[in-house]
UniProtKB/TrEMBL annotation:
Residues 5-178 form the Ketoreductase domain. Pfam families: adh_short_C2. NCBIfam families: PRK12826.1-2. Belongs to the short-chain dehydrogenases/reductases (SDR) family. InterPro entries: KR_dom, NAD(P)-bd_dom_sf, SDR, SDR_fam. This is Beta-ketoacyl-ACP reductase. It comes from Pseudolysinimonas kribbensis.
């Protein structure tokens, strides 16, 4: 039985973030999501925030703390892509993706860690990607931002581990989502051929792994990268 916690999921209005928030709600936790637009799943508190803006995050945290209590579990999920080959990638394409995916995770974790240090308990879960460790043409910006989350989690583990705080990374592979649905069918089929499991993953399968890392059972796991990729990235 897992202790009910106050959970905050960034980018919890769609896709994997929404599935993660819904799983925490189903397990009886007090759940909030940040979103720039749209709403989180039923049963979750939605607060407006942009992870590139520290002041908006601060206000969102204050709202969550007021309504649900100090954040004990933070899931840094918000992310964007701006895919293009490196020779065509502008400085802005690179900086915007890194500032959202990596800078956003940093801002969220920094704000959450205050309450976690006080409580001497915390779960930090960073949502990376198979691409961060495996690489992908046209995604130098995205892959760099996602790979960097591993270094962040491991540094947090060394810095905060003695205070009852864990920091882990979940690296999803080819997951059915709005983004993958837009790919041509033949391209989807090509991707699936490379996955040993022979199928795309479901957002709910990522959510289950995240919820387990946040549970009491995972208290001695920190600095780990948990792949949810059907075997695609073995060894990476």
């Amino acid at each position: 039985m897992t202790t009910p916690r106050t959970v905050l999921v960034t980018g919890g209005n769609r896709g994997i973030g929404r599935a993660i928030a819904a799983e925490f709600v189903a397990q009886g936790h007090r759940v909030a999501v940040t979103a720039r637009s749209g709403e989180g799943p039923e049963g979750a508190l939605t607060v407006r925030a942009d992870v590139t803006d520290g002041a908006s995050l601060d206000a969102a945290f204050a709202e969550v703390e007021k309504q649900l209590g100090p954040v004990e579990v933070v899931v840094a999920n918000a992310g964007i892509t701006r895919d293009t080959l490196v020779l065509r990638m502008s400085d802005e394409d690179f900086d915007t993706v890194v500032d959202t995916n990596l800078g956003g995770a940093f801002r969220v974790v920094k704000r959450a860690s205050k309450g976690m240090l006080k409580a001497r308990f915390g779960r930090v879960i960073l949502i990376s990607s198979i691409v961060g460790l495996y690489g992908s043409p046209g995604q130098v910006n995205y892959a760099s931002s996602k790979a960097a989350l591993v270094g962040m989690a491991r540094s947090l583990t060394r810095e905060l581990g003695a205070r009852g705080i864990t920091a882990n990374v979940v690296a999803p592979g080819f997951i059915e989502s709005d983004m993958t649905a837009e790919l041509p069918a033949d391209q989807q089929a090509e991707y699936i051929k490379t996955v040993p499991a022979g199928r795309p993953g479901r957002a709910e399968e990522v959510a289950k792994a995240v919820a387990w890392l946040a549970s009491d059972d995972a208290g001695y796991i920190s600095g780990a990268v948990i792949p949810v990729d059907g075997g695609l990235g073995m060894g990476h």
